[in-house]
Design a protein that fits this description.
Blueprint (H helix, E strand, L loop, with lengths): L16 H4 L3 E4 L9 H15 L8 H18 L2 E7 L5 E11 L9 E10 L8 H15 L5 E3 L6 H9 L41 E2 L7 E2 L14 H24 L4 H17 L1 H17 L4 H7 L3 H16 L7 E6 L5 E8 L2 E6 L3 H13 L3 E5 L5 H17 L7 E3 L4 H9 L7 E5 L2 H10 L12 E5 L5 H13 L8 E7 H17 L3 E4 L1 H9 L4 E3 L2 H5 L6 E7 L2 H11 L4 E5 L3 H10 L4 E4 L19 E2 L7 E2 L6 E8 L7
Parallel strand pairs: 4-5, 10-11, 10-13, 11-12, 14-15, 14-19, 15-18, 16-17, 16-18, 19-20
Antiparallel strand pairs: 1-2, 2-3, 3-4, 6-7, 8-9, 9-23, 21-22
Helix pairs in contact: 2-3, 6-13, 7-10, 7-12, 8-12, 10-11, 11-12, 15-16, 16-17
Length: 658
């Protein structure tokens, strides 16, 4: 809720900063959020003073902890941006936080809109146009992203702030009203506000219409699988129609694909790999378009790294398809079987899932991995990649579909859903009966949205808040190699370590070397009080860790570091903050290692090895669709067997049940 933070107090005359100071507006990184903290806390204090206890407001410190975590997620995942105003000495004098949200079904504001979540300027630096510059920076950012509208919230009783934003061009739109459920005031008996009522039909239903009591007539055709109800939103209806058309074509393609022999699927995968290499120049050119657009929009470095392709990465993607071709075909594998006492022969075999919907962020390798794994396991796939990789995905899918056509196979085995904006993703999530399973792959916000909104079954591929615990009985040279590799080998991926925990018995010996090594590789460090003391002695910059740091998946060269009293405290920390992805221990004590393996709840638990090995290819599975952190159907790297379901086959010679 944007406000001019802080209540002005009596003070000596301020210097004329207009004559001596210039200001700059810069995009904030996670490491800069400490400069935002005093403004946010002052703003919350302003709420306390303005509302005078009339409504519940969190304490400034508690509010900042929650807000800090939100800002880190925005910056990591590109779902928001924080601008910091600095003076000539590079000190923060104000900030603005801008969030990008999807649009609901009521108002036609485009695919997404902006929310000016907060804006504050230091009292000593007001009246110099800093607020105007911050608003203009937000406006430019929205223009880059083709966002047409943005909103803000402000306290209804704060008329000064309301006037300020009115002068900036914001107009009243909707009024948010609040009431305590526990102690509501009595309702005025003269309250007669009209409520919307849907009238019952007064005539008999026409052919093709079905009537439910209390509802308006609904065409029966709209009740078919995946159709969903009609809406007053043309964009949503268009997206639903598009998804129905694509999913119907995918089901037709899946039936034919399920009958292909293994050798035919393997030859097709090899042909796709060859075409990716042969048409690499066009693919890389499309990728450069995406990278240039992403850089212009200010995407975080971690996102740009995951988006980027070069000849080496493209060759790795093609090789991953060849690896899948060499793997055993799971379709038709007998999992178990027996002959029953009555002579019936019973067996359980693997069969394709059918039609898979993949919703993922700007990861071109996922486009090919998903298509390859789906094809080998006999599934058709509808791909919905992030808009940041739009041109790259189109180029990749064009090559893959061309290989299908060359082998006289239905190109709708692989389809790319890149039309109708966010509504198309929402329609895919609700295509129950046409799409068999949705697999999201990306950040926590994306996965949570899919789980919350989907009516199609979802297999979660979770985010990775990954820990490395260095035990008192660790080989410290080995531990140093593991920690550095886990964090710095490729920090933008989900199996990179985000938190380092060290036993207090070896902290003074291990941490000086570990902190120095991480700092030399560009890692920003956040530590507890003990870590900060050790870091100061070896001249390594470390700021104080917060709860938001412990909970963060940084996707960058950034790490939280803490000292623990022992194994129990380390495991308690992991239980509190882990996302259940990968948890590592370094120890030479077998008893300690056994407790870690038995008591830590994660998809992958490692002993004396880098967390970077949590990967389908490293496990010998070939390409993976993601790392599942849920416990139903699949957990850990999802490779070919995890892309299938099962069927029971019962064969007899006339037996009947008495």
């Amino acid at each position: 809720m944007p406000h001019q933070a802080g209540k002005r107090r009596a003070s000596p005359p301020r210097p004329d900063y207009r004559r001596v100071m210039a200001y700059s507006i810069e995009r904030a990184h996670i490491r800069d959020l400490a400069q935002v903290k005093p403004f946010w806390k002052a703003m919350v204090q302003h709420y306390h003073e303005t509302l005078a206890g009339a409504w519940p407001v969190r304490s400034p410190e508690e509010a900042w902890q929650l807000r800090h975590q939100e800002y880190m997620v925005w910056i990591n995942e590109g779902t928001g941006v924080v601008f910091l105003a600095r003076d000539a000495q590079k000190q923060g004098v104000g900030y603005a936080a801008l969030h990008f949200s999807t649009v609901g079904s009521t108002f036609d504001l485009g695919d997404s809109f902006g929310e000016l979540e907060s804006l504050a300027v230091h009292p000593d630096h007001r009246s110099h146009g800093i607020g105007v510059k911050l608003i203009e920076a937000c406006r430019i950012e929205l223009h880059k992203r083709d966002i047409a509208y943005w909103t803000l919230d402000t306290l209804a009783v704060d008329t000064r702030t309301t006037r300020l934003y009115a002068r900036a061009g914001f107009a009243p739109f909707m009024l948010k009203m609040l009431q305590s459920v526990e102690d509501p005031p009595s309702i005025d008996p003269t309250f007669t506000a009209p409520l919307p009522v849907v009238p019952l039909p007064t005539t008999a239903p026409a052919p093709g219409e079905s009537i439910l009591v209390g509802q308006a007539p609904t065409p029966a055709s709209m009740a078919r699988p995946g159709a969903g109800p009609g809406t007053d939103d043309p964009a949503a209806d268009e997206a639903a129609h598009l998804v129905r058309k694509m999913a119907t074509a995918s089901r037709e393609a899946a039936r034919a694909l399920a009958l292909l022999r293994t050798i035919e699927k393997d030859e097709l995968l090899a042909g796709m790999a060859e075409q990716l290499t042969a048409q690499g120049e066009q693919i890389l050119a499309a990728n450069r378009v995406d990278l240039d657009r992403g850089a212009a929009r200010g995407l975080p470095e971690g996102l740009l790294d995951r988006l980027a392709l070069d000849e080496s990465r493209l060759a790795d993607i093609a090789d991953a398809l060849r690896d899948v071709a060499r793997l055993p075909d799971p379709v038709g594998q007998v999992i178990r079987g027996s002959t029953l006492p009555n002579g019936l022969q019973l067996r359980q075999v693997r069969v394709p899932l059918g039609v898979i919907g993949m919703i993922y962020e700007a990861r071109p390798n996922v486009t090919v991995d998903a298509a390859g794994l789906a094809l080998k396991s006999g599934n058709a796939v509808i791909l919905r990649g992030g808009s940041a990789a739009a041109d790259t995905n189109r180029a990749l899918v064009k090559v893959l579909r061309g290989a299908l056509v060359a082998c006289r196979l239905n190109p709708d085995t692989i389809q790319l859903l890149d039309e109708a904006g966010h509504e198309s993703a929402r329609a895919l999530m609700r295509a129950h009966g046409l799409v068999d399973v949705i697999i999201p792959r990306g950040g926590a916000d994306l996965i949570a949205t899919v789980v919350r909104e989907s009516t199609v079954p979802v297999i979660e591929t979770g985010s990775g808040n990954v820990h490395v615990y260095v035990d008192a009985d660790a080989d410290l040279d080995m531990a140093l190699r593991i920690v550095v590799n886990s964090k710095t080998d490729r920090p933008s991926v989900c199996n990179a370590a985000e938190t380092l925990l060290v036993h207090e018995a070896v902290a003074s010996e291990f941490l000086p070397n570990a902190l120095s090594a991480l700092h030399q590789r560009g890692v920003t460090l956040h530590g507890d009080l003990g870590v900060c003391g050790i870091a100061g002695a070896v001249d390594v910059p470390v700021d104080r860790v917060t709860d938001a740091h412990w909970a963060a998946e940084f996707h960058a060269l950034e790490m939280a570091v803490g000292i623990v009293q022992g194994l129990d405290e380390a495991m308690e920390h992991v239980r509190r903050y882990s996302t259940g992805h990968t948890e590592a221990i370094v120890t030479e004590n077998r008893s300690t290692a056994r407790r870690w393996v038995d008591e830590v709840d994660a998809a992958v638990v490692t002993v004396n090895a880098s967390t970077r090995f949590t990967d389908g290819a490293q496990f010998g599975m070939g390409a993976e669709i993601g790392i599942s952190t849920q416990k139903l159907h699949a957990r850990g790297p999802m490779a070919l067997p995890e892309m299938t379901s099962t069927k029971w086959i019962l064969e007899g010679d006339g037996q009947i049940r008495g």
